[in-house]
């Protein structure tokens, strides 16, 4: 028997897309993976932004989707976090990538999950479900965030313990990160919660943690959200975004944007 070599499609850059190389892939479980790709020397973005990435579709044209960038703006590589959808037009192919493969990368990052879209405050809360964690992996590794806020909090709600991607890094308060290893131990807080499996931490949904005050345990300041001091970013399920969007407006928070900074922001590119 002879080994059969499967030819990988060769991608060609376009005016809107560069072609990058997959550098590493990590499969967290059967439906969650992350991967790192090369970064063009000219590629600039703000921590928290998203970009179009993709592969060649069955019709030979680029098949693209918007993905939040999970690496900080200073990183020499670009990282992404993705679910695996077996019949998904893109993710069915994307989950099979290997180091050395080619991938399309858009040239124009954008988004509202950035500090520019928020007014100054004391505490930054980043509320996420599932792969909505991705932009909140970027921001806590950006040293500027620790200059803008006294406390930086990532809340991550998932169904299973194995869905807690990057748990070790966050529990370690980014100790191996060269640019934030001094600020993060005193300013960074990680609040994971697992809703459908036994867990040695929180097991309630984010709204219940807010109601009980459990979300604020160990975080300096009030055990509730305060529009005068707290700034909020949200990314994840549509249910969570809509629920908390209404909640924060009722509490006197205003939604921000790049043009008009406010007290909370969501990424509308991912919300129906």
UniProtKB/TrEMBL annotation:
Q: One Pfam family, short name please?
A: FAD_binding_6
MF terms in GO: ferredoxin-NADP+ reductase activity; nucleotide binding
Q: Which cofactor does it need?
A: FAD
Q: Where are the transmembrane segments?
A: none
**Where does the source fall among the domains of life?**
Bacteria
In this chain the FAD-binding FR-type domain maps to 15-116
Origin species, per record, is Sphingobium scionense
Stated EC number for the protein is 1.18.1.2
Q: What is this protein called?
A: ferredoxin--NADP(+) reductase
Name the top EC class: oxidoreductase
Record has Nucleotide-binding as a keyword: yes
* Family note: Belongs to the ferredoxin--NADP reductase type 1 family.
Instruction: Report the InterPro entries cross-referenced here.
Output: Cbr1-like_FAD-bd_dom, FAD-bd_FR_type, FNR_bac, FNR_nucleotide-bd, FNR_type-1, OxRdtase_FAD/NAD-bd, Riboflavin_synthase-like_b-brl
Arranged from A to Z, the UniProt key words for this protein are: FAD, Flavoprotein, NADP, Nucleotide-binding, Oxidoreductase
Q: Which reaction does it catalyse?
A: 2 reduced [2Fe-2S]-[ferredoxin] + NADP(+) + H(+) = 2 oxidized [2Fe-2S]-[ferredoxin] + NADPH
Q: Name one GO biological process term.
A: heme catabolic process
């Amino acid at each position: 028997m002879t080994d059969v070599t499967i030819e990988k499609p060769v991608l060609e850059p376009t005016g809107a897309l560069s072609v990058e190389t997959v550098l590493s892939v990590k499969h967290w479980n059967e439906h969650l993976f992350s991967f790192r790709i090369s970064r063009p020397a000219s590629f600039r973005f703000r921590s928290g932004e998203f970009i179009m990435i993709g592969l060649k579709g069955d019709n030979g044209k680029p098949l693209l989707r918007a993905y939040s960038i999970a690496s900080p703006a200073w990183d020499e590589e670009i990282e992404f976090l993705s679910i695996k959808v077996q019949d998904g037009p893109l993710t069915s192919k994307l989950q099979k990538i290997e180091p050395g493969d080619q991938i399309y990368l858009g040239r124009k990052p954008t988004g509202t999950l950035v500090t520019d879209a928020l007014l100054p405050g004391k505490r930054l809360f980043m509320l996420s479900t599932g792969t909505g964690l991705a932009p909140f992996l970027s921001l806590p590794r950006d040293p500027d965030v620790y200059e803008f806020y006294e406390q930086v909090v990532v809340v991550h709600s998932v169904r299973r313990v194995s869905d807690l991607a990057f748990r070790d890094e966050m529990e370690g308060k980014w100790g191996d990160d060269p640019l934030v290893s001094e600020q993060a131990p005193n300013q960074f807080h990680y609040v994971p919660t697992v809703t459908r499996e036994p867990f040695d931490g929180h097991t309630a949904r984010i709204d219940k943690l807010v109601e009980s005050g459990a979300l604020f345990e160990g975080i300096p300041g009030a055990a509730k959200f305060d529009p005068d001091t707290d700034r909020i970013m949200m990314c994840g399920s549509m249910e969570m975004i809509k629920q908390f969007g209404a909640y924060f407006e009722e509490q006197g928070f205003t939604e921000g944007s790049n043009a008009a900074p406010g007290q909370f922001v969501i990424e509308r590119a991912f919300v129906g």
